Amino acid sequence: QDHLMESGGGSVRDGGSLKLSCKASGGVTFATHCMAWFRQVPGKEFEGVAAINWFDTTTYIDDVKGRFTISSDNAKNELYLEMKSLRPEDTGMYYCATYRPARMVGDRCNTWSSYRTWGGGTQVTVSS
Length: 128
Description:
By secondary structure, the protein is an all-beta fold. The chain has strands at 3-7, 10-13, 18-25, 34-40, 47-52, 58-60, 68-73, 78-83, 92-99, 117-118, 122-127.
């Protein structure tokens, strides 16, 4: 059974930084699975933030481009989200997610509705 567990959330001031981690286990391997970070910001829809595929091709939503970096350590089976220049509007619960696509060719893993397995989330709070 696929399992994801996030860590690294916390409270920072406007402009601060945090690095989230996600430990994957069970059948999840980064060589065959799409990996992504999602967030639930109060008052906004649940949204995909960043995705990475097996070639380390990354995708970001416009709001976080240049501030967030998604990466992975295949040997540790860990996914990361390094967040810099954090803003109060980044406050929310952040989730790691994964799915295994039926076809890998040309897939950037940025079809947010395809994700099926989720971690329990980690809270990020940015104060002004």
